[in-house]
Amino acid sequence: MKQLFVAAILCLSISTITAQEQDWKALQEKAKAFTRQGDYSNAIMVLNRALEKESNNIELKKDLAFTYYLNRDYVKALEVAKPLPEQQDADVQSYQILGLVYKAIEEAKDAEKMYKAALKKFPNSGVLYSEFGEMLWSKKAYTDAIEQWEKGIEVDPNHSGNYYNAAKYYFFTKDKIWALVYGEIFVNLESYSKRTAEIKIVLLDSYKKLFTDSDMGKNQDNKNEFVKAWFDIMKTQSAYVADNGITPETLSAIRTKFVVSWFEKYAKRFPYRLFDYQQQLLKSGMFEAYNQWVFGATANLAAYESWTKTHADEYNQFNTFQHNRVFKLPAGQYYQTPNK
């Protein structure tokens, strides 16, 4: 009898907990619906109601802080967001939301201190490195910013934000290889966004700058062995480009030669997912379509649209493949270090 009584109490407790969880989650979903509609006042009201039931629920607090932020009530947003990292169950998003608020109120010192604390707790979080770098960039601390983005690429190679920021940074430096490599990785990780179109412009312009540089690779060959290998192959294409210019067609040709040469000379020494992917596309007959996807619309939209019509089978094959594939980089393929 005693065992039956204990079992009944346990069942009742579990039922009560489940009901409470469903109750606050239902309110959270209502609030999210209001937020999606841009009705932040009602979302805030519902979230505060939910917090009356679940006063220490960090998911509700994060939603409330973010909704105050969207509503541009930064005083309230900071009031809710600032204690979040101190909670035992604080996660990366807790720091992200506080970072957004600090950015909005231009509290750079507090933001920097917060990001450093966050990265001690989550040292492999690519998104935190990305956002910390963006904050440092806004302070014009450019060298510090790229250090954060590079670290993010090293420890979390599948977070797209660090490649996006790093590609734009290197575009304005002499390190054209990294604008090209990081930019192309980015458009494969994040293939259909406004940022994708932006980086495709960076890629096309970077190739133009690369091949108009009479001293291509002169100041970079000694930086590290990976860079030296990349330029060793790319420099052999200069004469071909000089005769034909930079177009999606010439880029497809020189990049085909690059892939073939890379796998003849350097692939075993420097395994790299981006080049593996290019070789995969080349072997499957989709590399020309891929190069059109990367460069075509940016170089000449009318010519690209004409190409997709006259090469409909190739375009459709690649388009189907592109929408169904997952581009994922393994750990350990990081070569942006001196003498590596």
In short:
The protein is built from 18 helices and no strands. With 340 residues, it is mainly alpha-helical. The protein has a domain at 176-340.
Annotation keywords:
340 residues; mainly alpha; 18 helices
What features would you describe in this structure?
The longest helix is centred in the first third of the chain and has 35 residues, at 2-36. This protein has helices at residues 2-36, 40-53, 58-70, 74-81, 92-104, 108-121, 126-138, 142-155, 160-171, 176-189, 194-211, 225-234, 238-244, 248-265, 273-283, 287-299, 301-310, 312-324. By secondary structure, the chain is an all-alpha fold. It has a domain at 176-340. The model is unreliable at 4-19 (pLDDT under 50). The termini are far apart. Helix 3 (58-70) runs antiparallel to helix 4 (74-81) and helix 5 runs antiparallel to helix 6 (108-121). It holds the Pfam family TPR_19.
